[in-house]
């Protein structure tokens, strides 16, 4: 597939606020309805990024695998390509989604049964021959910490621990699935640094270029456009395709969110990027609801379609790009 033609969304079903809730209470009818809303409002919608849960798999392996099959079958029925995310390293300090913590990656005598690799292998085997998998995303936003004021050597040690884990997972998945690309989605607040770090285990580069500044500021726009240009230069250097797997910063103000969205997608399109905006549906997940449901943190409100199936005001602008 031509990655520049990807137009889609991350999707967190509306009925849950974290990984365990979303998978334990899996509701196939809701998933079908909400993905169908996406097709209704966004005719160009062709790809969905779906987050899986190692945490739930630990509780109910057979049930988890069955639910993943049903979930992806719904996306296939609706005509969507799929980017499954196996693990998550983004943690919201206000409303955490769950996923992987350093406790799982640093071997301790009290931590038995940390079988992350088994989960990756189980899921990869299920869909190794699927025609609906666009690519595998090993992990959402590893290296997602800045630790201002902390010795840089400490950061590098932490990154090495994560990279070793991701590398082992990549190798195990590639040994099973020779058909689909495998990659990782790092944050972009350090520029292209983490993308470069992950080059050897990225068949295609996944990037998260969020613009969270003032669209009316020339300096802010220049910084963002330089970031995108740096990614373009690295894409040309490596010869690997590149896909935006998260973008479109939020706001509690619909008009401001649309302004940021249009600027962001316009700049991505100029550079030949396809994208998966964050995120399709209003949800109890952090950043995907207003303050009347739960606290709202820095990214603001990032959904496109509310829980009742209504398109958020002005958000049909997505279709322009």
Structure summarized in a few sentences:
The protein is of the alpha/beta class. It contains ten helices and eight strands.
How far is the N terminus from the C terminus? 18 Å
Name the quaternary structure. Answer: single chain
Helix content: 25-40%
The description of the largest β-sheet is: 8 strands, parallel
Strand line-up across the major sheet: 5-4-3-2-1-8-7-6
Give your account of this protein's structure.
This protein is an alpha/beta fold and 321 residues long. Helix content is 40%, strand content 12%. It has an 8-stranded parallel beta sheet with strand order 5-4-3-2-1-8-7-6. The two termini are 18 Å apart. 44% of the residues are buried. The mean pLDDT is 96.
Fold blueprint:
Elements: E1 7-11, H1 19-24, H2 28-41, E2 47-51, H3 54-59, H4 61-77, E3 81-88, H5 102-105, H6 116-127, E4 136-140, H7 152-176, E5 182-185, H8 193-197, E6 205-207, H9 218-238, E7 242-244, H10 254-270, E8 274-277
Parallel strand pairs: 1-2, 1-8, 2-3, 3-4, 4-5, 6-7, 7-8
Keywords:
globular; 40% helix; 321 residues; 8-stranded parallel β-sheet; alpha/beta; 10 helices
């Amino acid at each position: 597939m031509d990655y520049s033609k990807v137009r889609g969304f991350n999707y967190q079903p509306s009925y849950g606020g974290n990984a365990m809730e979303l998978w334990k209470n899996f509701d196939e009818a809701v998933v079908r309805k909400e993905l169908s809303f996406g097709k209704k409002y966004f005719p160009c919608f062709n790809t969905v990024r779906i987050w899986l849960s190692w945490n739930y798999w630990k509780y109910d392996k057979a049930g988890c695998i069955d639910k993943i099959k049903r979930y992806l079958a719904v996306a296939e029925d609706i005509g969507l390509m799929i980017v499954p995310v196996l693990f998550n390293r983004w943690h919201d300090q206000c409303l955490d989604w769950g996923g992987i913590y350093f406790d799982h990656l640093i071997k301790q005598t009290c931590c038995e049964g940390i079988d992350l690799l088994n989960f990756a292998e189980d899921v990869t085997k299920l869909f190794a021959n699927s025609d609906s998998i666009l690519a595998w995303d090993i992990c959402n936003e590893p290296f997602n910490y800045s630790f201002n004021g902390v010795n840089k050597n400490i950061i590098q040690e932490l990154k090495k621990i994560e990279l070793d884990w991701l590398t082992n997972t990549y190798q195990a998945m590639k040994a099973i699935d020779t058909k689909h690309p495998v990659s990782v989605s790092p944050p972009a607040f350090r520029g292209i640094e983490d993308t470069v770090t992950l080059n050897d285990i990225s068949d295609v580069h996944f990037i998260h270029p969020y613009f969270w500044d003032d669209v009316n500021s020339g300096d802010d726009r220049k910084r963002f456009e330089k970031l995108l240009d740096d990614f373009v230069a690295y894409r040309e250097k490596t010869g690997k395709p590149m896909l935006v797997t998260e973008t479109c910063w939020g706001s509690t103000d619909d008009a401001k969110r649309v302004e940021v969205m249009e600027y962001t997608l316009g700049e991505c399109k100029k550079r030949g990027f396809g994208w998966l905006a964050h995120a399709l549906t209003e949800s109890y997940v952090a950043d995907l609801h207003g303050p009347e449901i739960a606290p709202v943190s820095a990214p603001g409100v990032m959904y496109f379609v509310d829980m009742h199936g209504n398109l958020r005001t002005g958000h049909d602008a997505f279709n322009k790009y």
